[in-house]
Specification:
Layout: E1 6-10, E2 16-20, E3 42-45, E4 50-52, H1 57-76, E5 80-82, H2 101-106, E6 111-120, E7 123-132, E8 137-146, H3 151-167, E9 176-183, E10 186-193, E11 200-201, E12 209-214, E13 220-225, E14 232-237, E15 242-246, E16 253-258, E17 264-269, E18 276-281, E19 287-289, E20 297-302, E21 309-313
Parallel strand pairs: 3-5, 3-6, 4-6
Antiparallel strand pairs: 1-2, 1-21, 6-7, 7-8, 9-10, 10-11, 12-13, 13-14, 14-15, 16-17, 17-18, 18-19, 20-21
Helix pairs in contact: 1-3
Length: 315
């Protein structure tokens, strides 16, 4: 039907399901940050980290970086709020051995993180203890070591551990985002932390690179590359090392999507002349055609069970 598209589901054995899904009208782009979860947040006290040795510029800067990133991560998680730092002065002298639970409780703290950074040559050791204030217990103790370039990563790892301790689920602070960025006339694949920092380019071939998609284990990224002037599927490791490339025929190869077990990639290809859904077996490059219809089939996406593939069609 002209002017309409449908969403279909296809099993790898070619069982088809369909339902009407008209294309939405073009809408104005909306940008916003959703920061409220509707749940009561755990109120966190996060005093300044101690530094060793005293007077160490490296340890001081490390303490500032880790504390700020940790605070931002925990607030962004939606599970934590922060106690007004002006109230910290109402708490007496405290230490890891004597956290002063009752005084932190009095200013509204549910959780307390005490940390310190210690210079070790040109590296830094970061130590943190997480206390449940009402229960007056030490919940978590962590120690990390790294260079100055790894401080944000250390803070992200610590934040995810804190979220896991309180919720039983891993946080998102160590998440990496794969995206396409414009570089002159070319488009390159790049990575960044979830907060937009630590941005690195994976491709630098002055061509079009599109549609990056993570493997389920987070170790590989598949995308479409025009480096050789025709679209091919490429798989890279996180460090940019090329794992595999699968040259394709046809004018269109697009929309790769990993299977839940990481063994296959569904994609759209016009290798037979008409855009159809295909399945690439990663280990040997074998390609299986899944759809066969005069209509245009595109944008495959695996279901969470890995048993079906959804796609759009104008059939």
């Amino acid at each position: 039907m002209q002017g309409s598209r449908r969403i279909l589901a296809i099993a790898p054995i070619l069982a088809l399901l369909s339902r009407a899904a008209p294309l939405p009208a073009a809408q104005e782009e909306i940008r916003d940050i959703i920061s409220e979860t509707g749940a009561t947040r755990i109120q966190l006290a996060l005093p300044e980290f101690r530094t060793l040795p005293r007077g160490s510029v490296l340890a001081h800067r490390a303490a500032q970086t880790v504390r700020q990133v940790l605070r931002d991560d925990l607030e962004f998680s939606g599970f934590f709020g922060t106690v007004n730092e002006e109230y910290y002065r109402l708490v007496g002298s405290f230490s890891e051995a004597d956290p002063r639970y009752r005084e932190w409780t009095a200013i509204g703290a549910d959780a307390l993180i005490l940390g310190r950074t210690e210079q070790e040559g040109d590296r830094v050791a970061v130590e943190a203890r997480v206390y449940e204030v009402p229960g007056e217990i030490l919940m978590l103790g962590k120690r990390y070591r790294g260079g100055t370039g790894s401080l944000r990563s250390i803070a992200h790892r610590l934040a995810d551990e804190v979220v896991r301790q309180y919720t039983g689920e891993r946080g998102v602070a160590t998440t990496r985002i794969a995206f396409v960025h414009q570089s002159g006339a070319s488009k390159e694949i790049a990575l960044m932390d979830y907060d937009g920092e630590h941005r690195v380019s994976l491709t630098r071939d002055d061509s079009l690179n599109l549609s990056p998609t993570w493997s389920p284990d987070g170790a590989r990224i598949a995308f479409v590359s025009f480096r050789r002037d025709f679209p091919e599927l490429v798989i890279l490791a996180q460090d940019g090392t090329r794992v595999a490339a699968f040259p394709q025929s046809g004018e269109l190869n697009s929309s790769p999507d990993w299977s839940t077990d990481g063994e296959s990639i569904a994609f759209t290809s016009s290798r037979e002349g008409n855009p159809e859904i295909h399945l690439l077996r990663v280990r040997d490059g074998r390609i299986t055609r899944l759809t066969s219809h005069p209509g245009i089939d595109s944008s495959p996406a695996w279901s969470p069970t890995g048993r079906e593939i959804l796609f759009t069609s104008d059939r």
